Amino acid sequence: MIERIESICLFFASFFYILYWYFGLDFYEEGFLFFEKKLGNFSDFLFSFTSYLPLFISLISFFTIFLFNKKLLQIKFSKTALYLSIFMSLYTVFYFYFSLNYLLKIMPSKTMEFLLYAAILNPFISSYFIYLAIKSIKKNDDLFRL
C-alpha cells in the first residue's frame, strides 16, 4: 500500500539512504583514509561495516513497505532501521568531525561542497522519516484494533 503515509516515509528514507550510499561511497573512502591513522587496526572493520550500512538501512526500509499486512513485524523492522539510522547519524557526526576540512579541500566544485553538507544532514532526515513511519504504523494499528 504505497498510498499510506508510512509507506511514503519509508520510501523516502530508503531513497535518501541509497543516494547517500551510491554517490558518497568514493568520497567516504577518501575521507576515511585521512583519519585511518587515528583508529589503528579497528579501522578496517569500521570501514567495511559503515560503508555498507546505508545500503542495509535502505534495503530494510524498502522491504518494510511491503509488510503492510503484518503491522507488528513492520514495526519491528522499522525500529531496527531507526536504531541503525540513529547509529549512522552519530557516526556521521564523528566522521565529519575528523574529515570535513580535508574533504572540503578536495571537492571539485561548490555544488559538490553543497552536496557534502547535504550528506551530513541525510542520516538525520532519514531517521526522522523512519520515526514518522513508526508513529504512523502504530496509529493505523490502533485504528484497526478498535
Quick synopsis:
This protein has helices at 5-39, 42-65, 71-106, 110-145. It is mainly alpha-helical and 146 residues long.
Tell me the helix content. Answer: over 70%
Could you give the distance between the termini? 21 Å
Strand content: under 5%
Radius of gyration: 17 Å
List low-pLDDT spans: none
Q: Number of domains in the coordinates? A: 1
Q: Biggest sheet, in brief?
A: none
Structural class category: mainly alpha
What is the helix tally?
4
**Run of helices and strands:** HHHH
What this model shows, in words?
The protein contains four helices and no strands. With 146 residues, the protein is mainly alpha-helical. The chain has one domain. Helix 1 (5-39) crosses helix 3 (71-106), helix 1 (5-39) crosses helix 4 (110-145) and helix 3 runs antiparallel to helix 4 (110-145). The model has no long low-confidence stretch (mean pLDDT 85).
Keywords:
4 helices; 146 residues; mainly alpha; 0% strand
Topology:
Blueprint lengths: L4 H35 L2 H24 L5 H36 L3 H36 L1
